[in-house]
Every structure is written in structure tokens, then in C-alpha cells.
Specification:
Shape: flat
Number of strands: 5
Helix content: 55-70%
Radius of gyration: 31 Å
Strand content: under 5%
Strand order of the largest sheet: 2-1-3-5-4
Structural class: mainly alpha
């Protein structure tokens, strides 16, 4: 009877465990879909597509770069030609939706591959799911339509081959060779494809009494060791199976010698990366957690067993150190380290029953399940409803790229050489070549720009004489520049040489005043308005009717140039509001257009409140009330919506509701606020109305 009950209990436990794993697996899948399903938002996607188009159209790999005018005579290392061709073929067949699905499919494949690898390394299913989640956070900031998508899979494939060696045919080691050839022709991270097998080989040459490669999972017998040695020796030779020979093989080493690389965020030291954008704290935390977890668990095993895993420690020492100093390597390190961490944890768990009370391992397992559930649910809620770091969908994140500036250039035939912001190079190459050639783009290291040119590019942002010197040297008459405050060339304001003929929240276009586009300058120069979110500068023009009229004309032209120029619509709304009752209808239209362009922006509360005010002034009380409540939903601290709601309530005779809104206003505004007397006066009037109704 006892044995039957024990069997039934064990079956129930197994069923519960399967349900828990299924639930965690489903949550992980949802997390991954939310993580990978977002619009095209990488600056580099565009030049990869354009290069792929060139390779397919010419059926060759041209030796001279045609896209930039600063690259003449320079070596062009086409380090990702294979991925570029694939990206372009997918785009040509399916458009941007196909690229988005390709990225999502690659992410799911990476997760599935890693999960199987972790299970092969004795990770419990729950632990494997948790570790895949950790890896996905490290991948997040490199999860773009870029060649790395494929190299993450090649890295996992290399590890899978290594872990299969001890139990498979001796010749399995030669599967590393085709993987390496693919990697060399896909991305410069191929060095990991030779480093990991070489590390496994070296670990097998160490004495067995104190060395346990992969805690025994990578220990090879002499025959397999010989085959691995031959395969490792063949890898550098196989690397020459690329269209550029030694130049491509040397590229990663020449690339890392460029001092100016650290001027670009992806090449920063890991601890400095969140300083560029706090959003990117996740990969740095993941890096720290994985390093700490491996060192802690592996150190305990060294103490308890007097042996260590030279491969795992080698991955941490080499790839981990590189990831610390080059944050773009964090995903490679995490993917490579997690199987060795899983092996270490599994080995540690064998010791726990003899060193801890029997109840402790079970409690640890329960805590692991609870932690996995909590982290996955929080991540799903965060991605679905809170931060939404990248806009979901199949299209292009237009708020990142100079799409409308490029359309303006097409309409007005602004052809020729362009001095451009670095981050716009890829998009302009895709959209405007061959009509325009660029000064710089994201391939600055692939064409091995000399660093003096990079210094000159940086200097031109701060000194007008440096910009003019480059213009004279390279004969460009067009500037396409980032409108972000930190990237602007402030010296171009009121510049005697350059005139601004287009602006929106993303980009600004300048042309030379005395050049080919002088007529465009005469007809369309923007002298007064700016691409800045702080619109208070417009107030300075109100004292001069001529200046105010000029500013309004420029704002109207800005929305004609780009109907999605939200800053211009906001500027118009502000100035129509200052113009008085005659412009209320125009103010309402401008506010409505601005809000339509900012549907999910948490900073739109004030715009909703102003729209509610405009509606109330036009006698549309019901619509005004709806807009005021929307403003409070977005930002409950706003005062104007309360004033609007009180007015709307008064209009329909809801005196108690009006009184409540006015009382809330009085509680929230400071005693010195200029509105205090008006609110009190209005509240007194409402109180008298209520008393009069009560007397009846």
C-alpha cells in the first residue's frame, strides 16, 4: 500500500513538474516574441541592404567602394558579404516584414538551440529556461537586422560540435571547418570560432589529475584529440576560403587597433555603456551576474574537488575580459559561458545533498521556479505595456531615420556629395545613392578610414573653419545633419556660408548659400524656426509683427515639407493659442495633428489638456471633457484638465462635480500661484449656485 501511494505521489509530482515547465516555456516564448518583434531600427541595417543589393546586381564584390566620396583608393573589406546578400534577397522577396520575421526567427532559433545545449550540459529544465531568459537580455541590445544574428547561431553550433566530440565519431571535429568558413564570410567575430576549439584542445593537453575540461564533458581520448588538433590546424587555412583572402582574416585585428572606435557607443567599455543611454543597463548587469555566478560556483568546485575546468575559466578570462572592454561582445560571452555555468551548477548540485540538509536542494529548486515565473511575467508586462523600447511592428521606425529629409532631397533634386551625420550614413546610402555620395557611414572601420579623417569629422561639428576646410577639400554643397541637441552643429545658426532649407525632429538639411542651390535658399531658407522641443523661443518673435509673421510662415512650410513634423505642429498650436479667439479653430487642428503623431507618448498629457481647452473655448463641451480626462489618464498631476472639467460640469449644470474639481485644484496649487484667486472666485460662485438650488 505504501509503495502504491509513493508511486501515485511521484506521478503527481511529475505531472505538476511538467505543467510548470510547460507554463514557463510558454512564458519564455511570449517574452521572446515581444523581444524580437519590433520595427527596423538599426542604423546599420541600411548599408547591409545596400551592399547586398550591389553584390546581387553586379554579381561580384567590387574592389572600390562607390557609396562614399572619402573612400577613393582605400581598401574595402567586405567582412559581411554573405549576410548582406541574404538580407537583400529576403528584402527583395518579402520587404521589411520579411526582415522583421527573419530576426524574430533567428532569436527563436538561438533560444531553442541554447536550451538544447544547456539540457545536454545537465541543466534542469527550469534552470535552462531561466538561463535562456538571461541570454535574451544580453542579446537585446544587439538584436538587430545585422550579421551578428547568424554568428550567434554559429557560436552555438561550434559549442554543440565540441560537446558532441567525446561521444560521437572521431571525425565529428571536422564539422567545425564548414562552420568556420561560413563565419569568416559572415562577420569579423569569426575569431571566437577558432578560439573556442583551440581552447578545448589546449585543455585536453593539461594533466588529468587537476584538469577537467567542461567538467569531463570535453575530455577527449587520444584519437579524438588528434582529430580535433587537425581540425583546429585546418581552421586558419579554411579561413582563406573567402573572396578577399588575408585582408578579411586580418580585419578584426586591424579594426580593434583603431583608437577612435571608442567614440562610438558599441565599442565603449561595458561600465560606460549605460551612460550613453540608461536603457542599456540590462546587458551590463547580465554580464556581471554571469561572471559572478560562474566564478562563485567554479571556485567552490575547485575547493571541494581540487580540480577546475580550464575551458570554462578560459572563456571567462578571455571572452569575459573582452566583453568588459568592448560591450558589443557581451552577447558572445554570455552565450559561450552559459553552458559551462550550467555544467558547473549541475556538478555543484551533486555535492549539495552531502554538504547541506536534505530539504535545502528542494527549496532551492522551488525558489528557482518562483524566480523564473516572476522574472518572465515582469518582463512580459514591461515589454507589452510599460517601456516598449522599440516600436513593435513590421515597418521602419521612422523617428530614427532621416526619411522625410531624404524625400525633401528627392523633390528638390539635391544631388551630389553630402556631408552627413555618421548615424544617417547607412540610411542615406540606401535611399539616395547614386544621386548622393556620402562623407561617412557605419562602415568607417570596414573601409579602414584613417583616424585623421574621423578627427576632422568630429572637429567640423565644433569649428566652422573645419567644416569649410572639408567642404573645400571634398567639394560638397549639402549637409544632412542629426537634429538631436547633442549632435547639432550649433555654429551653423546664422552661418554666412550655409543655409538651412529643411528641418524636422530627426534631421536638418543645409545647402551652400552661393552654390548650385542658391535659388532654393532664396525661396525656402528657415531663418527663425528650429528643430527643438523647447518652443519658448517663438515667444520672442511676438513683439515684432514682421518676425512673428515670418516664423508662422516657416512653421506652416515645415508641415508642408513634412506633414509628420510634430514640432512644427506644436509650434503652430502654441502661436495660434497666443493669437486669440480668431485662431482657436486652427489651434485645435494643430493640437489634433500633433497628438495623432504621438499616440503612445507618455509626455502628451499637456497637449491633451490644451486640446481640451481649445474644444471648450469652441463650445464643444462633451469633447472637451473627454480630452481632459485623457490628459489626466496620461498625467494625473496636471491642473489645466481640472479647470476644464469644472467648466464643462458648470456648462451642464453639474455643480457638485464642478465643486469637486475646483476643490482638488485648490488643494494642489501653491498659495502663491497666480490662479488661486480665480479658482477661489469660481468656487465661491459654484457654492452659491449649490445653495440656491438647495433653497429651492
Amino acid at each position: 500500500m505504501l509503495s502504491i501511494r509513493g508511486t501515485e505521489q511521484e506521478a503527481a509530482n511529475n505531472t505538476a513538474a511538467r505543467w510548470v515547465r510547460a507554463c514557463l516555456g510558454l512564458l519564455l516564448f511570449v517574452h521572446l516574441v515581444l523581444l524580437g518583434f519590433f520595427q527596423i531600427s538599426s542604423l546599420d541595417t541600411w548599408f547591409h541592404l545596400k551592399e547586398g543589393e550591389l553584390y546581387v546586381a553586379t554579381r561580384s564584390l567590387p574592389t572600390q567602394d562607390p557609396f562614399a566620396f572619402t573612400t577613393e583608393g582605400r581598401e574595402w573589406v567586405k567582412y559581411s558579404w554573405l549576410a548582406d546578400v541574404l538580407f537583400y534577397l529576403v528584402y527583395a522577396a518579402t520587404g521589411f516584414p520579411g526582415l522583421v520575421l527573419l530576426r524574430l526567427g533567428a532569436l527563436l532559433a538561438i533560444a531553442g538551440f541554447l536550451y538544447r545545449l544547456l539540457r545536454r550540459c545537465d541543466a534542469d529544465p527550469v534552470a535552462a529556461i531561466l538561463l535562456v531568459f538571461v541570454a535574451s537580455l544580453a542579446l537585446r541590445f544587439r538584436l538587430f537586422v545585422r550579421p551578428e544574428l547568424f554568428t550567434f547561431l554559429l557560436l552555438l553550433g561550434t559549442l554543440a560540435v565540441l560537446f558532441r566530440l567525446p561521444a560521437s565519431r572521431p571525425g565529428t571535429a571536422y564539422a567545425l571547418v564548414p562552420l568556420f568558413v561560413l563565419w569568416v564570410n559572415t562577420h569579423g567575430s569569426y575569431v571566437f570560432g577558432i578560439g573556442l576549439p583551440a581552447l578545448a584542445l589546449l585543455a585536453n593537453l593539461l594533466p588529468m589529475d587537476w584538469s577537467a575540461p567542461g567538467w569531463g564533458r570535453l575530455r577527449l581520448d587520444p584519437a579524438r584529440r588528434r582529430h580535433l588538433a587537425l581540425a583546429v590546424a585546418a581552421l586558419p587555412v579554411a579561413g582563406f576560403l573567402n573572396p578577399q583572402g588575408i585582408g578579411l582574416l586580418l580585419f578584426p585585428f586591424r579594426q580593434n587597433r583603431m583608437i577612435r572606435l571608442t567614440a562610438f557607443p558599441e565599442w565603449l567599455e561595458a561600465w560606460r555603456y549605460p551612460g550613453v543611454d540608461p536603457v542599456w543597463w540590462e546587458p551590463v548587469v547580465v554580464l556581471g551576474v554571469v561572471l559572478l555566478a560562474f566564478v562563485t560556483v567554479a571556485a567552490l568546485l575547485v575547493v571541494w574537488e581540487r580540480r577546475f575546468d580550464p575551458v570554462g575559466w578560459g572563456v571567462v578570462a578571455a571572452m569575459g575580459a573582452y566583453a568588459v572592454f568592448r560591450n558589443r561582445a557581451i552577447p558572445y560571452f554570455v552565450l559561450a559561458a552559459l553552458p559551462f555555468l550550467a555544467l558547473a551548477i549541475a556538478r555543484l548540485s551533486e555535492h549539495l545533498p552531502t554538504r547541506l540538509p536534505a530539504e535545502v536542494p528542494r527549496r532551492i529548486g522551488q525558489l528557482g521556479v518562483l524566480a523564473s515565473l516572476t522574472l518572465l511575467i515582469l518582463s512580459i508586462v514591461d515589454q507589452a505595456f510599460l517601456t516598449r523600447r522599440f516600436p513593435p511592428g513590421f515597418g521602419v521606425a521612422e523617428h530614427i531615420f532621416p526619411e522625410h529629409a531624404a524625400a525633401f532631397m528627392e523633390r528638390h533634386r539635391l544631388d551630389g556629395r553630402v556631408f552627413n551625420s555618421y548615424q544617417f550614413g547607412g540610411y542615406l546610402m540606401w535611399r539616395r545613392w547614386p544621386a548622393n555620395q556620402l562623407f561617412i557611414d557605419g562602415r568607417y572601420d570596414a573601409i579602414l578610414f584613417d583616424e585623421q579623417l574621423l578627427e576632422a569629422y568630429a572637429e567640423a561639428h565644433h569649428r566652422p573653419v573645419a567644416l569649410d576646410r572639408l567642404a573645400d577639400t571634398y567639394a560638397f554643397e549639402i549637409l544632412v545633419l542629426d537634429a538631436e541637441p547633442g549632435s547639432r552643429m550649433d555654429h551653423l545658426r546664422n552661418n554666412p556660408t550655409w543655409a538651412r532649407v529643411y528641418w524636422d525632429p530627426v534631421a536638418e538639411v543645409y545647402v551652400r548659400r552661393d552654390g548650385r542651390f542658391a535659388r532654393l535658399v532664396e525661396a525656402r531658407e528657415y531663418r527663425l524656426t528650429r528643430s527643438t522641443a523647447d518652443l519658448t523661443y517663438l515667444e520672442g518673435y511676438r513683439a515684432s509683427p514682421a518676425a512673428r509673421a515670418q516664423a508662422m510662415m516657416e512653421l506652416q512650410r515645415a508641415v508642408e515639407d513634412n506633414s509628420r513634423n510634430v514640432l512644427a505642429w506644436q509650434g503652430l498650436a502654441q502661436e495660434y493659442g497666443a493669437a486669440g479667439p480668431a485662431a482657436r479653430g486652427k489651434r485645435l487642428e494643430a493640437l489634433t495633428r500633433a497628438l495623432a503623431l504621438l499616440p503612445d507618448n507618455p509626455g502628451t498629457g499637456r497637449l491633451h489638456a490644451e486640446r481640451a481647452e481649445a474644444l471648450l473655448q469652441l463650445g464643444q463641451s462633451a469633447e472637451a471633457e473627454t480630452a481632459a480626462r485623457e490628459a489626466l489618464r496620461v498625467d494625473a498631476t496636471l491642473l489645466l484638465p481640472r479647470w476644464i472639467l469644472a467648466g464643462a460640469a458648470e456648462g451642464r449644470g453639474a455643480w457638485r462635480e464642478a465643486r469637486e474639481q475646483l476643490r482638488i485644484l485648490l488643494r494642489r496649487i501653491d498659495a502663491s500661484h497666480p490662479m488661486v484667486s480665480r479658482v477661489r472666485e469660481r468656487l465661491d460662485g459654484v457654492e452659491r449656485r449649490l445653495q440656491a438650488h438647495g433653497a429651492r
